[in-house]
Amino acid sequence: MINPTWLDTFITLVETGNFTRTAEQRFMTQPGVSQHLKKLEEACQCELVIRLGKGIQLTEQGQRVYHYAKEQQEKEQDFIASLKFDAPFEGKCVVACSGAIAQRIYPALLALQKQHSALNIHVEVAPRRTILSGIANNTLELGIVTNQPESEDIHSEYLGEEALGLILPRSLPDALAAQIPELSDNTQGCISNSGSGSGSGSGSVAKVASVSGKAKSKTDGGRTLKAVIKHLGLINHPDAMHYLQRYFNDCGEAELANINPNKLPHTGYINQLSQILLPVSEGLGYTVLPTSTLDFVSFADKLTVYKAKNEVTEPLYSVQTPHSALPARYQVVKQAITQVLG
Fold first, then answer.
1. How many CA atoms does the CB half-sphere of 108 hold within 13 Å?
2. Closest CA to 226 of 264, 255, 251, 186
């Protein structure tokens, strides 16, 4: 590698055309300038200048070295400038989150990118452990996870809450109802619609209830629900066990609180968020997901959300490394995400 100090001296010599003025501008002695030139010629293994009295004339090799030195000087200046310049609406931003959160925030991020075309937004769907590992290892700059991480290597900020729902088929199959003594013979009435019937996520909330004609307590209703989910079977997915455990713990239904999610029967598995609710809509099982997922499926009218005693939510946090501030473009993206989730 050619010594950059020699190149800088050579640039000044070429542009001033004089050893004395070069020495003055470089705060050197004239012999020092000559020494730099000599070392540069030795490194290049060729003569670079022809001395003409007090002036100089470049050889062909000298002209090439001058152009090379100028290019290196400009590249260095551009690089230094890039370290000081942080445009809020330019550059690549990678955000890692769950599939359910991605569905909620992606439209807002696309709108932001449409407004600022120099932004390059990447949404990476990943499980919580992968996101936290990426932040801790500095391979990710911004992530969104449920539940506040307990690690000194990760800085977190509260964003909002994500509602979880026990999602069932709107109409239970006749064969299933026949296997459940707690339900009446009127199998299609086992789920009573309390919403608008529009098929949207917010308008399809229902309560599993007995229609046998005899009044039953909430405990009986809990047993009915327990029988439904055991006979219907779980449509499993990567976050199902976590969601089920949290739902059973927090929903306020005593019978569900005693169920071990790991011992429940499964009737299917899929790891594509957009497809998890499809078998549920066909009466093939139930699952637990963020209720916002219902807003993104075309068959929401075939689904219902069990109206538990308590609302079940999970806190959402943005995560990043604690040792440095995010670039300005990430702050813009983070603000857009907060407006959606907050």
1. 16
2. 255
Answer left, alpha or beta for residue 146, where phi above 0 means left and psi between -120 and 50 means alpha: beta
Q: Is 154 helix (H, G, I), strand (E, B) or coil?
A: coil
Q: How many CA atoms lie within 13 A of 245 on its CB side?
A: 6
Q: For 160-200, how does the pLDDT look when each residue is reduced to its tens digit (9 = 90+)? A: 999 999 999 988 755 555 554 444 333 333 333 333 333 33
d(CA 240, CA 333): 29
Query: Closest Cα to residue 328, out of 98, 143, 141, 108?
Result: 141
Q: What pLDDT is recorded for position 342?
A: 81
Distance CA 33, CA 171 (A): 91
Task: Give the strand pairing for 266-269 and 55-58.
Answer: unpaired
21: helix, coil or strand?
Answer: helix
Pair of tokens at residue 253: 């239904």
Note the pLDDT tens digit of each residue in 227-240: 889 889 999 998 89
Q: What is d(CA 122, CA 143) in angstroms, rounded to the nearest whole number?
A: 12
Global pTM?
A: 0.65
Other Cβ atoms within 10 Å of 186 Cβ, number? 11
Q: In degrees rounded to 5, what are phi and psi of residue 147?
A: 70, 135
Amino acid 52: pLDDT = 87
Q: Considering the chain, what percentage of its residues have pLDDT values greater than 70?
A: 85
| Euclidean distance between CA atoms 130 and 76, whole angstroms | 37
Q: Shortest CA distance to 204 belongs to which of 194, 216, 189, 190?
A: 194
Side chain identity, residue 242 = H
The number of C-alpha atoms within 13 Å of 233 and in the hemisphere containing its C-beta is 14
- The three-state secondary structure class of 168 is strand
Q: Do β-strands 119-125 and 91-97 pair in parallel, antiparallel, or remain unpaired?
A: parallel
**The predicted structure's pLDDT at residue 152:** 85
Residue keyed to tokens 């199902």:
240
**Cα–chain center distance at 283:** 32
The DSSP bridge pattern shows strands 142-146 and 91-97 to be parallel
